[in-house]
Amino acid sequence: MKIKRISLSKVLKLELPELLNDVIRVIEKHNPAHLYLEKSLNRLKEQQQLTKLLEVPRKAHPLTMELQLLREKELQCVGAIVSHMEFIVRVDIDSMRDAATLAKPVVQRFLKGLRKNNESVINQIIKQFLDHLNKYPEVVYALSNLGLQPFVDELRKVNDKKLKLMSMRIINPKPRVNSRRIQKEVQNNLSIVFDSIDVLKGFEKKTNYDPLINELNQLLTRYATIIHTRKTHNKKRAAKKSKKKTSSTSEEKIKKETTLILLPNLIEALKLRNLGKT
């Protein structure tokens, strides 16, 4: 009796920790010291710490979504300032003309067409716009007289919050785990231990390895069934998708062929109807 071999590479990332734990549990149950498997057992236990890193993948940093919302709100504030500025200039109210003359070049210089830039450029332009306001209070006064101060204040507030979150994301980056490397290492170590058991059985004739091998084979058979079921399911799903695509293509082809057949008849009927009218 030998250990059943399964394709360990077909075991899913989140199935591997359970398989490893099950193998360790089975070996511990059969007196590993008596079977000369203490080193092999320790080798597998070292892998348990690695498998703890095999988590459900995170699509993005936890702060990414919040940052995206803040970026969009920034652009909305900028859009409000630009559109209101353009409206004020277009209406040309006497009491606002001086303030508009002072504020318009600043708004156009920094904020006009801001959205078309990439994120880094947008960040730098907004920073320069806010720095410009800090340096020239007369522009702030003009914007306030034009009723644009609430939008400027909101832009400043949103920008401050965004910069803080960006700093937090840099300080606490999304952890990077090489899942494939970990999976490969665990798979290799399981294979080494299985080979060791088969080899020991051949050399240690007085030691009975069959109960251990039998229980390991039961365990591996269960995982082989899981792999086979998943493979069958994936094949059926792919076939169904292909059939649906083929059916859709056939229907489109029939429509085109029908159109080509009927079109000459339709043209002839229209010609006859026109002759009848004359």
List the helices and strands and how they pair.
Layout: H1 16-29, H2 38-51, H3 64-91, H4 97-110, H5 119-135, H6 137-145, H7 149-171, H8 179-203, H9 210-277
Helix pairs in contact: 1-2, 1-9, 2-8, 3-4, 3-7, 4-6
Unreliable segments (pLDDT under 50, ≥5 consecutive)? none
> Sheet bearing the most strands, described?
none
Indicate the overall shape.
Answer: flat
Q: Helix tally? A: 9
Cα end-to-end separation: 97 Å
The residue fraction in helices comes out at: over 70%
Question: Averaged pLDDT, please?
Answer: 86
- What is the C-alpha radius of gyration, as a whole number of Å? 36 Å
Strand content: under 5%
Describe the protein's architecture and organization.
This protein is 76% helix and 0% strand. By secondary structure, it is an all-alpha fold. The termini are far apart. 17% of the residues are buried.
Any key phrases for this structure?
mainly alpha, flat
Provide a brief overview of the structure.
By secondary structure, this protein is mainly alpha-helical.
